[in-house]
Amino acid sequence: MHAATCKRLKATGGRASTVAKFLGLRREDEALTDAPKRERRMKRLSRKQLADRIESNPSRIAKLEAGGPGATLDLLIQALLVAGTSRAQVARPSQAGRVVEMVVHG
């Protein structure tokens, strides 16, 4: 959030937060929602380019990157794979010790 926006928000009695804090996400969950955007930017892909490659639309990619309700697990996995994340990285257990089992068929 921009500094000016935070200042206006605080002046009206509001408080600045993040999507992760609002939704009560753990660090590993937050990292999962940040991954598609990070990987897309590393590949220098626009949202439209990524969306075209996975036969979706840019608004769904934006919702995915924002952790919005339109984000589905299959969209997340497709976006990560197309943006360059390996299948092993997608299926890796979380650092917190929770076992995450994903089978990605190709």
Blueprint of the fold:
Elements: H1 3-11, H2 19-23, H3 27-42, H4 47-53, H5 58-66, H6 73-82, H7 87-91
Q: What is the CA–CA distance across the termini? A: 38 Å
Our count of helices gives 7
Secondary structure: number of strands: 0
Detail the poorly predicted runs. 95-106
Radius of gyration: 16 Å
The run of helices and strands is HHHHHHH
Kindly report the average pLDDT value.
75
CATH topology-level fold name: 434 Repressor (Amino-terminal Domain)
Main β-sheet, in a few words?
A: none
3D structure, described in words:
The chain is elongated and about 45 Å long. The protein has 106 residues and is an all-alpha fold. Helix content is 58%, strand content 0%. The chain has a single domain (20-106), classed as lambda repressor-like DNA-binding domains (434 Repressor (Amino-terminal Domain)), CATH 1.10.260.40. The model is unreliable at 95-106 (pLDDT under 50). The longest helix is centred in the first third of the chain and has 16 residues, at 27-42. The protein contains seven helices and no strands.
